[in-house]
Each structure stands twice: as structure tokens, then as C-alpha cells.
Specification:
416 residues; mainly alpha; 2 domains; 17 helices
């Protein structure tokens, strides 16, 4: 126990990061509070249509009823448009994971009190898992960015994340779908694969020594794909990074990837409560690839994606062009720690354009953490140049203005 609580694990950087994450949680909780407070004085007495559908399906499954989305017992066309289903009622884009995560906290609340009169109290419960996911994603982002870019890059990435309007909204599930779960799973899958690949150079037994990271990789893949079936693209991406980073141990890398994929498949099967028929039928009807390339020929799609990225982090309006120009013209910044998150961010943005429905929003949200690491890594490199004082002052001045703008905008929510 003494070795665990060390200054390296719990020092000043960890304290500052924890403070930023608490600020993020407070902002997301304020959004939830504002929504529930306003609903008391409006015609809305309960959750939104999509949230209610997830709660109903998850509650039914947790109490021994039908598996959520495999199929929905509701008549075709009665569910909200956010839930994609085929003619037989099977959810084509999500496993039961989202429904179970949404409904599970309600088990702690007396069933007889799940009514409209007490809704301002129990409606907090379905949001708690997604608030936690937002905090966990921020902690993961800081850990990765700090390892890749140092303390400066880590805190820059975390600050941009903790005051991101889109990330706060997604964590609060405030008038949006809970894509934060898919974003956290995809982020964890990519960087866990990278971490596993680097450990392959240690002269030890591969599978036995890496079993914790292999399990973590499997859990991350299960969360990503279970939250959004089209996130299955992270599975080959994880393999690509494993093979690229461990070229002399590709057999071991493939073994690890296979093991992690089987763990993910078993966990995905568990979300169906091990019902073989429901699981097999759901996978048969699933839309793992619903992309259409026509979107790349429409100028308005590019404009919309750009607006979504800037809405996620308005500071990127200035920081992203600077980072891209620096990456192109300064060879020193073109190393793996900057290139890999940039590639994944670009891939997810492209997939967000190619998926015109709910899945597209999930890919765009998942691209933001990778984009923040890319930008923060390059800006951290610029802060080490002879012009570091000027660069540091400009960057943190802009970030300070961004934080102030975000907080002031959030304060206006109850008035709108």
C-alpha cells in the first residue's frame, strides 16, 4: 500500500488534473440540474422520448423480460427516430449496453416511486453513468497526453476537454444521445493497443505478462462496439497499431489482438444476457457499415462538420490551423506521438461525414479527444522553441478566454 501512494502517483500534477475534472463534472451536473429544474415548469414531466425508450428497454431486460433492441416489443414506428430499427424491431446500430447502463442505476430507487411527481429526483440516476464516463474519458485523455506531450501538453489537452461544450453536453446527455460511452471506449481501445504494443519489447512471456492490458483492451473494444456497432472500425485499427509498433513480434501482437477481440465478443454476448438466439439475430441484422460516400461530394457536409468541431472546442478555430501548419512545415513535430492521434481524428471525422445518421454524431464526438491530443502535442513542441515565452503567453491567454467564454455560456442555460 505504501508503494502505491507515492508522490509520483499522487503529486501536484494529479491534484491539478483532479481539480479540472471536478470542474468538468460540476459543469455537466449543472446542465442536468438545469434541465430537470426547467422541466418542473414546463409540459415535460419525464425523460425525453429516446431516454425513456432506453430506460424502458433496459428495465424490462433487467427484470427478466425481452432483450433490449433484440427486438423491441413496441410496434414499428412508435420509437423515436434516434433509435434505428428494422421492420422486425431489431436495433441495427446499438447493442443492449446503452439501455442497461441507462436503466441500471434505477434499481437503487424504489419502483413504486418511479413516477412523474418524483421525477426531478430519480431522473438524476440514468445520467450518473454517463457523467462518470465523461470524467473517466477526461482522466484517460490527461494520462495519455501527459505521457506523449509532457505536463504542458497534458494540461493543455485536459483544459480544452474540461471546458468543451460538446463534451459537457454529451456527458450530461443534455438534448443529445449518449455518444460519450462510444467516445470513451474508442479512445481506450486505440491507446491501450499502443501501450500493449510497446510492452512487447520486454523479454517476458507475452500473454501472461500483459494479461491486465489485454483484458483492458477487450473491455474497451466491447464498450466502443457495444455503444455503437459501427465503432467496430477500432478493432482493425487496434491491430494495425499493434503490428506497426511491434514489427519483430507480430505473432505475439496478433495473439494479443485475437485474445482481446474474443474477450470483447464475450462481453458483448453478456449484454444480451447470454441469449444465443437474440445475440445471433441481432448481429445478423446489425449495420456495421452504414457509410455513404456521397456526403464527400456535398460542400454543406464539410461546413457542418467544421461547425461541429468548432462547437466542441471554439479555441480550435485558432489553435487547429496553427497546429496543422506547424505539423506540415516543421519536421520535428512529425513523430508518432503527434501523428497517431491526428490520423485517428481524421479517420473519425471522415466516418462522421460518411454516416449521415446517429452514428455520424458518435464518430465526430469520438474524434475530439484525439484532435485535442494532436493540437496539444504540437503546441507543447512550439513552447520549447526560442520563442517559448511568446507562444506560451498566446496559447494560455487564448485558453483562458476560451474557459471564460465556456463558463459564461453555461451560466446562460437556465435562461434559455
Amino acid at each position: 500500500m505504501t508503494r502505491f501512494f507515492t508522490r509520483e502517483r499522487f503529486g501536484r500534477p494529479q491534484f491539478l488534473a483532479g481539480t479540472l475534472l471536478l470542474a468538468f463534472l460540476a459543469q455537466a451536473a449543472w446542465l442536468v440540474h438545469s434541465e430537470l429544474h426547467l422541466s418542473e415548469f414546463s409540459a415535460s414531466d419525464g425523460p425525453s422520448a429516446s431516454e425513456q425508450a432506453r430506460i424502458t428497454a433496459g428495465w424490462r431486460q433487467l427484470h427478466g423480460g425481452s432483450i433490449a433492441g433484440a427486438p423491441y416489443p413496441d410496434p414499428f414506428g412508435t420509437l423515436p427516430v434516434e433509435i434505428s430499427q428494422d421492420n422486425d424491431g431489431f436495433d441495427t446500430e446499438h447493442s443492449p449496453l446503452l439501455s442497461l447502463v441507462t436503466a441500471a442505476p434505477l434499481l437503487a430507487w424504489p419502483q413504486r416511486l418511479l413516477d412523474s411527481e418524483s421525477s426531478p429526483h430519480w431522473r438524476w440516476l440514468p445520467r450518473i453513468p454517463f457523467l462518470a464516463c465523461g470524467v473517466f474519458l477526461g482522466a484517460s485523455l490527461w494520462y495519455v497526453a501527459r505521457r506523449l506531450c509532457g505536463n504542458t501538453g497534458g494540461f493543455l489537452a485536459l483544459t480544452l476537454y474540461c471546458f468543451s461544450p460538446s463534451m459537457i453536453q454529451a456527458s450530461a446527455v443534455w438534448h443529445t444521445e449518449p455518444e460519450i460511452l462510444a467516445a470513451w471506449g474508442s479512445f481506450g481501445a486505440i491507446f491501450t493497443a499502443i501501450a500493449v504494443a510497446h510492452t512487447l519489447y520486454a523479454p517476458r512471456e507475452v500473454v501472461l505478462w500483459n494479461w491486465r492490458r489485454i483484458v483492458l483492451l477487450g473491455i474497451s473494444l466491447a464498450i466502443a462496439v457495444g455503444s455503437q456497432f459501427s465503432m467496430i472500425v477500432v478493432v482493425p485499427c487496434a491491430l494495425a497499431f499493434l503490428l506497426y509498433l511491434a514489427p519483430i513480434r507480430r505473432g505475439a501482437a496478433f495473439t494479443i489482438w485475437t485474445t482481446a477481440s474474443l474477450i470483447a465478443l464475450a462481453l458483448l454476448f453478456a449484454t444480451y444476457f447470454f441469449h444465443v438466439h437474440a445475440f445471433s439475430e441481432s448481429l445478423r441484422r446489425t449495420s456495421f457499415w452504414g457509410a455513404t460516400w456521397r456526403a464527400f461530394t456535398v460542400l454543406g457536409v464539410y461546413r457542418q462538420v467544421g461547425l461541429q468541431i468548432l462547437r466542441a472546442c471554439p479555441a480550435l478555430a485558432m489553435l487547429l490551423p496553427i497546429a496543422i501548419a506547424t505539423y506540415i512545415f516543421w519536421p520535428r513535430t512529425r513523430y508518432f506521438g503527434n501523428t497517431s492521434p491526428g490520423i485517428i481524428a481524421l479517420l473519425f471525422m471522415g466516418l462522421g461525414m460518411a454516416h449521415p445518421h446517429v452514428a455520424g454524431a458518435g464518430f465526430l464526438l469520438a474524434s475530439i479527444p484525439f484532435l485535442l491530443i494532436f493540437v496539444s502535442g504540437i503546441l507543447a513542441d512550439l513552447m520549447e522553441t526560442p520563442f517559448h515565452l511568446l507562444v506560451t503567453a498566446c496559447v494560455w491567454g487564448l485558453v483562458g478566454a476560451y474557459v471564460l467564454w465556456s463558463v459564461l455560456a453555461l451560466a446562460q442555460v437556465p435562461k434559455g
